[in-house]
């Protein structure tokens, strides 16, 4: 049985940065460090940080006055920032810079008098944060059917933004529908769907060309992980979302000669390796040999700066631990 590993997979630059911010804050100021929402959507990452002293809260009011609060990679609304300030909290911003870009676009369009259509998933924390930057001016669209029904107060002053972790193909359909209905609709200067999401989706498309089964390592709450599963299924491959190797089921492998493995942008590589080990063990139990292959390596070449309060901290902490 072939086990084909996607490239790229797993952590993106925004996730790496967010986790590093929490770890450096714990090392510099000591626990507890409060984090608004899960820093990234992965249970293992969250539990590892909790063991080091991170405390995850949904409301700034749940952190004691004067405490240090980190905003998660998904971003927050101005109302959440204001609540933290009124609470007297010190804050660090771990928002992915690509999400911040969408926030800036939302404010810019709103200041210019545009109403906004945000393509995204209701209830997702990133969507809630983005909508908070243009309250009263933003309507959410999740499907092409919804895009066909929405109305605009002034079609000449309408703009569209997207959640960063969506399916490129599905988003394209929705945006094309909006452009057909509102020819003057304004688009962002650059695509809102992040480079890491696009790259991981492209890698899964390549997996689905060869694999009968595609496994995506990720959390059920992870938007980008769920989109990877959908993309594989759309291309006629069976696909399953697993949080860890223990969720693999032997019957999934019946009649399967090639298994593709990828991971969402918030899934650690350790979980991928454990899934591969489990697949190898299941193959051996069935009297088969596992041959592990990797797609050609992709250098995404993206590194995001730390917040000003922590720049240089990584090098100092590394030196102290040497």
Question: How far do the termini sit from each other?
Answer: 42 Å
Q: Any idea what the radius of gyration is?
A: 21 Å
* Largest sheet properties: 5 strands, parallel
Give the DSSP E fraction (strand runs of 2 or more residues).
15-25%
Tally of separate helices: 11
Regions with pLDDT < 50 over 5+ consecutive residues?
315-322
Lateral arrangement of strands in the main beta sheet: 10-9-11-1-12
> Could you give the order of the helices and strands?
EHEHEEHEHEHEHEHHEHEEHEH
Q: Roughly how much helix do the residues carry, as a percent range?
A: 40-55%
Q: Tell me the total number of β-strands.
A: 12
Q: What class would the helix/strand composition place it in?
A: alpha/beta
Please tell me what the overall shape is.
Answer: flat
**Mean of pLDDT:** 93
Q: Can you describe this structure?
A:
- This protein has 322 residues and is of the alpha/beta class.
- The chain contains 11 helices and 12 strands.
- A 5-stranded parallel beta sheet has the order 10-9-11-1-12, sandwiched between helices.
- Strand 4, helix 3 and strand 5 form a beta-alpha-beta unit.
- Helix 4 runs parallel beside helix 5 and helix 8 runs parallel beside helix 9.
- It is flat, with a radius of gyration of 21 Å.
- The C terminus is likely disordered.
């Amino acid at each position: 049985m072939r086990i084909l590993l996607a490239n790229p997979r797993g952590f993106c630059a925004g996730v790496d940065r967010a986790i590093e911010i929490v770890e450096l804050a714990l090392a510099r100021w000591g626990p507890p460090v409060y984090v608004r929402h899960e820093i990234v959507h992965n249970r293992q990452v969250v539990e590892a940080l909790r063991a080091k002293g991170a405390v995850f809260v949904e409301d700034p009011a749940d952190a004691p006055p004067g405490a240090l609060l980190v905003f998660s990679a998904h971003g927050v609304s101005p109302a959440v920032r204001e609540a933290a300030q009124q609470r007297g909290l010190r804050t660090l911003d771990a928002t992915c810079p690509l999400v911040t870009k969408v926030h800036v676009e939302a404010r810019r369009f709103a200041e210019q008098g545009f109403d906004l259509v945000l393509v995204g998933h209701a209830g997702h924390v990133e969507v809630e944060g983005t909508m908070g930057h243009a309250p009263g001016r933003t309507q959410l669209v999740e499907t092409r059917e919804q895009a066909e029904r929405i109305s605009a107060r002034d079609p000449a002053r309408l703009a569209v933004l997207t959640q960063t972790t969506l399916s490129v193909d599905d988003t394209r359909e929705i945006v094309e529908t909006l452009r057909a209905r509102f020819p003057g609709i304004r688009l962002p200067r650059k695509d809102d769907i992040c480079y890491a999401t696009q790259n991981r989706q492209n890698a899964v498309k390549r997996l689905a060309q060869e694999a009968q089964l595609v496994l995506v390592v990720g959390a059920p709450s992870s938007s980008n992980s769920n989109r990877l599963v959908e993309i594989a299924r759309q291309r006629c491959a069976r696909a399953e979302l697993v949080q860890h190797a223990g969720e693999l089921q032997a019957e999934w492998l019946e009649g399967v000669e090639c298994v593709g493995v990828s991971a969402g942008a918030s899934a650690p590589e350790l979980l991928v390796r454990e899934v591969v080990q489990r697949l190898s063990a299941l193959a051996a139990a069935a009297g088969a040999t596992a041959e592990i292959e990797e797609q050609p390596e992709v250098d995404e070449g993206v590194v995001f700066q730390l917040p000003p309060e922590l720049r240089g901290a990584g090098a100092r902490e590394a030196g102290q631990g040497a």
